[in-house]
């Protein structure tokens, strides 16, 4: 682990104390909003630094007791018993602070666009795409996020050939960005009479939601077509001329939104288009920055097989971090936190190793 920059974290703690004092002094509303925003950003770091400094003082006191020949046997025994736990606590706090100091992905706090497409496996792949969407819906509900459907193309036997939704809330992209890739399922399809296990797949793409200030889309660069929304889409699609297709001419990206309101469809289609163009630009910059050192987790490679869902064994395996859980039924009910936390922790450990190598 890289050495903790003590001067820097002490400056952060002093800045937090200053903000606290300025807010207590009762500034005008505009100034208060700015101070409160910075205060919220530094609060976790300041608490960890305070805890670290307190633990370091306690450790110094214990070491002084042990070094003092006048210390009686009982006190010495007590100090020797407490010291290992204190050393462990200091190491944990230092690691927590290192993680908080890591460069932040500017998109982490954003909402996201979730796109799921059936891959190999025909009807079974479409059914699995539907299962994945419901899994993410339940996970989002547990986080207090809002899921809003943008477009859906129904599978012939159920599920979806393709479904696109916006997931709104704080920190959505940070939690879902590692879901991008190929998800493989192994199970006996409902249509299989002889009980044979089939392997199918669906592709997930998670894009950070982009604001208009992030991506400028010139009117002359897009073509907007309206069309009758019928056929695939089922209950999500009506049969009036409300569907909107927007084509971005420079890149060839095409987005379709097929809900009831043509005005809403245009807004949603532009939202998706901005997200895809923003994702392209982020990928290009990431490739330029780290062509030879791209991290596997979070690479956003949609062709990479990232996870297997084995229903007969009740097993989920994430291949990037060699994580295996035997509670697939609960994961499919939206209990994704353990998987998400493991992926985030692995990503952070790689970043820490990267920082140590650079240092």
Q: Can you describe this structure?
A:
The chain has 359 residues and is of the alpha+beta class. It folds into two domains: 6-101; 112-350, Alpha-Beta Plaits. 47% of the residues lie in helices and 20% in strands. The chain is built from eight helices and eleven strands. The protein has helices spanning 6-24, 29-67, 73-101, 122-143, 172-176, 262-289, 328-332, 337-358, and strands spanning 112-118, 146-154, 160-168, 181-187, 198-208, 222-227, 243-248, 253-257, 305-310, 315-318, 323-325. The chain has an eight-stranded mixed β-sheet. α1 packs across α2 and α2 (29-67) runs antiparallel to α3. The termini are close together. Mean pLDDT is 82; it is low at 230-240 and 291-301.
What is the fold's blueprint, element by element?
Elements: H1 6-24, H2 29-67, H3 73-101, E1 112-118, H4 122-143, E2 146-154, E3 160-168, H5 172-176, E4 181-187, E5 198-208, E6 222-227, E7 243-248, E8 253-257, H6 262-289, E9 305-310, E10 315-318, E11 323-325, H7 328-332, H8 337-358
Parallel strand pairs: 4-9
Antiparallel strand pairs: 1-3, 1-5, 2-3, 4-5, 6-7, 7-8, 9-10, 10-11
């Amino acid at each position: 682990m890289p050495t903790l920059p003590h001067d820097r974290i002490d400056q952060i703690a002093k800045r937090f104390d200053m903000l606290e004092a300025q807010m207590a002094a009762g500034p005008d509303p505009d100034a208060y909003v700015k101070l409160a925003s910075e205060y919220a950003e530094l609060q976790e770091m300041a608490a960890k630094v305070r805890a670290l400094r307190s633990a370091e003082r306690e450790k110094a006191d214990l070491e002084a007791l042990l070094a003092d020949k006048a210390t009686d046997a009982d006190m010495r025994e007590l100090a020797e018993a407490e010291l290992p736990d204190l050393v462990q606590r200091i190491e944990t706090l230092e690691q927590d602070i290192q993680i908080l100091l890591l460069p932040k992905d500017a998109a982490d706090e954003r909402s996201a666009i979730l796109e799921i497409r059936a891959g190999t496996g025909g009807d079974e792949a479409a059914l699995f795409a539907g299962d994945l969407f419901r899994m993410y819906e339940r996970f989002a509900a547990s986080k207090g996020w809002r899921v809003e459907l943008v477009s859906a193309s129904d599978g012939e036997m159920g599920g979806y050939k393709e479904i696109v939704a916006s997931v709104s809330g704080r920190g959505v992209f940070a939690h879902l960005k590692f879901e991008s890739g190929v998800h493989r399922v192994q199970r006996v399809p409902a249509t299989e009479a002889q009980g044979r296990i089939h392997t199918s797949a669906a592709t997930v793409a998670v894009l950070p939601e982009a604001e208009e200030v992030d991506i400028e889309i010139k009117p002359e660069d897009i073509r907007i077509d309206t069309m009758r929304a019928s056929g695939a889409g089922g209950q999500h699609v009506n049969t009036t001329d409300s569907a909107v297709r927007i084509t971005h001419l420079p890149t060839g990206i095409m987005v379709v939104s097929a809900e009831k309101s043509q005005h809403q469809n245009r807004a949603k289609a532009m939202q998706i288009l901005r997200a895809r163009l923003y994702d392209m630009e982020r990928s290009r910059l990431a490739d330029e920055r780290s062509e030879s050192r791209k991290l596997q987790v979070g690479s956003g490679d949609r062709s990479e097989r990232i996870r297997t869902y084995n229903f007969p064994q009740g097993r989920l395996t994430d291949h990037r971090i060699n994580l295996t859980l035997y509670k697939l039924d609960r994961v499919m009910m939206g209990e994704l936190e353990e998987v998400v936390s493991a992926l985030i922790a692995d990503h952070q450990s790689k970043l820490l190793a990267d920082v140590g190598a650079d240092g």
